[in-house]
Amino acid sequence: MQPAIVSLLLNLLLAPVTTASQQQSKTSAGVAALPQADGVYYRQSAAKWIQLTQARVADSKIRGMETYLQTDGLTGLNMNFVYPGAHAAIQIFEKRPTFFVRGIGTGAEALIVQLTCKKDSRAVSTTSLNAARENNAGFDKKDIYRVVVVLSLDGGFSATPEENLKPGEYLLTFGSENTGYDFGISPAKR
User: Fold this and answer.
1) I want to staple 180 with a disulfide (CB 3.0 to 4.6 A). Which of 59, 76, 113, 173 is the partner?
2) If you average pLDDT over residues 137-163, what whole number do you get?
3) Contact of 26 with 153, CB cutoff 8 Å
4) What's the pLDDT at 37?
């Protein structure tokens, strides 16, 4: 064996072993540990995760049901979902926020949908004609922002938009408007 390889192997063998508790201390010293409870979390800073709550649907309307049924699904079934309030409780100042998800949906289903803002509510429309494997609910393509998903070794995954989000209201969803977590992107702090 060459001396450099022997030296490297000896250094690796004699290096101090880091225990899980020591690793946890290192993690909590400067970077927030991943949340352990099921939920959706926004990474506010290197040291803090904020849990998002599931968006509550205040009203929903279905259009085209009769024609949809008469044609065995060959026409579009349109749905409109309204969420209360002009803004989500969580307002974010960065354009590409990172979320961590555990126990809800899958990374393959995750996407961000821009909501239409009204005076005192926010809304999203879906149509069965837009439904696809990567868009189960049938959201309008112009409202969808794809996410980069990174799986966590201990379960869960992080999701970050592929592109910057414009100021507005959004829903992080997992294949359905019923499993959405709302947040807003606010203009940068001055």
Assistant:
1) 173
2) 89
3) no
4) 94
